[in-house]
């Protein structure tokens, strides 16, 4: 198969979102005077990510805005705080965002993999769920915002992954057909199954040390790093 285009997920594929969120969260908690001991801190960290899993998909489905989902998360996370005022809720959540953004880091193989795909003559895009401005800034700060790499964020698309409209819009943006496009990411549902259902080829990224108990269906190809993709793209191009 000759691929004409490569679509890459962003969070936990190109940039260490989970690591940045954990580092940022711990710094934010310390600034709030929370998490006095290890057990308490770990419980708060677990609670934060549980709330993320509950509320963030609602924003992706456009049941509420990204701002509204942040308010819902911080109010649920700090139930004893009086955060009924939207401006105050935004300010408190903004403290986490500042800590999170300061912890953004690209994976060591991200830049080289993008450059290898471009060097192989592929059209390259980043397809991510989230706010376009935030995700573009994340790429810029981590050195991954290339002028010839398109950024497709769900806030500016007809729908979020795994809705087929997200992949179709990205393929149109790159000027390619789904059947000649490879999608790579760490989410089985968002980056593999949804892409395959739309006619794209897909690879699941499972980096060492990133635990995911979701079974991998038969026939799904797994990468342990984006450096493996470099060779896959060159052989297929």
SSE topology sketch:
Layout: E1 5-8, H1 17-32, H2 38-60, H3 66-77, H4 86-102, H5 110-119, E2 123-128, H6 132-141, E3 149-153, H7 164-174, E4 181-185, H8 188-197, E5 201-205, E6 222-223, H9 226-236
Parallel strand pairs: 1-2, 1-4, 2-3, 4-5, 5-6
Structure description:
This protein has 237 residues and is of the alpha/beta class. The chain has helices at residues 17-32, 38-60, 66-77, 86-102, 110-119, 132-141, 164-174, 188-197, 226-236, and strands at residues 5-8, 123-128, 149-153, 181-185, 201-205, 222-223. Strands 3-2-1-4-5-6 form a six-stranded parallel beta sheet, sandwiched between helices. The chain is globular and about 55 Å long. The model is unreliable at 231-237 (pLDDT under 50).
Distance between the termini: 8 Å
Number of strands: 6
What helical percentage do the residues reach? 40-55%
Shape: globular
Radius of gyration: 18 Å
Count of DSSP-assigned helices: 9
Summarize the main sheet: 6 strands, parallel
The order of strands across the largest sheet is 3-2-1-4-5-6
Average pLDDT rating = 93
Kindly name the structural category. Answer: alpha/beta
Q: Could you spell the SSE succession in H and E letters?
A: EHHHHHEHEHEHEEH
Q: Regions with pLDDT < 50 over 5+ consecutive residues?
A: 231-237
């Amino acid at each position: 198969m000759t691929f004409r285009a490569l679509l890459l997920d962003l969070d936990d594929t190109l940039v260490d979102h989970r690591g940045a969120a954990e580092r940022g969260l711990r710094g934010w908690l310390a600034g709030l005077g929370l998490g006095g001991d290890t057990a308490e801190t770990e419980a708060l960290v677990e609670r934060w990510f549980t709330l993320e899993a509950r509320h963030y998909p609602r924003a992706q489905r456009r049941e509420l805005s990204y701002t509204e989902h942040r308010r819902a998360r911080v109010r649920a996370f700090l139930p004893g705080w009086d955060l009924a005022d939207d401006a105050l809720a935004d300010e408190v959540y903004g403290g986490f965002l500042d800590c999170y953004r300061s912890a953004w880091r690209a994976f060591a193989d991200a830049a080289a993999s993008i450059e290898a795909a471009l060097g192989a003559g592929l059209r390259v895009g980043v397809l991510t769920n989230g706010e376009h401005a935030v995700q573009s800034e994340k790429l810029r700060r981590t050195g991954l915002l290339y002028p010839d790499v398109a950024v497709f964020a769900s806030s500016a698309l007809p729908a979020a992954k795994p809705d087929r409209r997200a992949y179709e819009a990205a393929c149109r943006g790159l000027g390619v057909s789904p059947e000649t496009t490879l999608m790579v990411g760490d989410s089985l549902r968002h980056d593999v199954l949804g892409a395959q259902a739309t006619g794209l080829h897909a690879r699941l990224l499972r980096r060492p040390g990133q635990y995911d108990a979701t079974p991998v269906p038969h026939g799904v190809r797994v990468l342990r790093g984006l450096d493996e993709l470099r060779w896959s793209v060159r052989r297929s191009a």
